[in-house]
Amino acid sequence: MEKTVLITGATSGIGEACARKFAEGGYNVIITGRRAGRLESLRAELEKAGARVRTLQFDVRDAEAASAAVGSLSEEWSRIDVLVNNAGLALGLDKEYEGSQEDWNIMIDTNIKGLLTMTRLIVPGMVERGSGHVINIGSVAGDAAYACGNVYCATKAAVKAITDGLRIDLADTPVRVTNIKPGLVETEFSRVRFHGDNERADNVYKGIKPLTGADIADVVYYAASAPGHVQIAEVLVLATHQASGSVIVRK
User: Fold this and answer.
1) DSSP alpha helices (H): ranges in the chain?
2) Which pTM was predicted?
3) Of the residues 27, 152, 205, 222, which is catalytic?
């Protein structure tokens, strides 16, 4: 029987890599994001490779838009087997008392509230059908704060707590819940964090071979592919020369 995955933030990085991985695995793929052009480009690529794809353009910060988008799916497409809550970002790298209120709000609204919105929209159907899997993309930053990471680290700590809480709330159902916690991954992440300062962003990855979006997609797909009685609760994935959120050895 065909399965369907919905991936938020699928227009770049980990989300885009997850879309490719699940499409290769024979899933029907629903890709969501804010950028229509990128969604259509990825849809065309995946369909050319033989996948069945639907696109939903919305910002996870907008709960009404998210609800309308999910509500627009046909009955067939609304039977979502795997929800990958990937949409998220970091903005700024400032001391907490010097940080931007706007940056804080965007991170909190995307990383926490957006994840909660999608969970609330999709999980009831999983419970009703008696099957499903929620995979949240957390971060090593959620394990311990690092210098100038303050609010971003707090949002990813919240993702861990929310994921753990959902797993507890679903323990009497067959629905599984996973938290994937990447370390240093070379995507658009740092360019977004530094508001388009490419030189500063590139320096983040100098002297170390970072993870790629495809590396994390492999782990996400592994968790989703485990037998039904196996729940991969949490996975921390780091580059070989990264020991924690703050310990990176550059050569």
Assistant:
1) 13-24, 36-48, 63-71, 101-107, 115-129, 150-169, 189-193, 198-203, 213-225
2) 0.96
3) 152
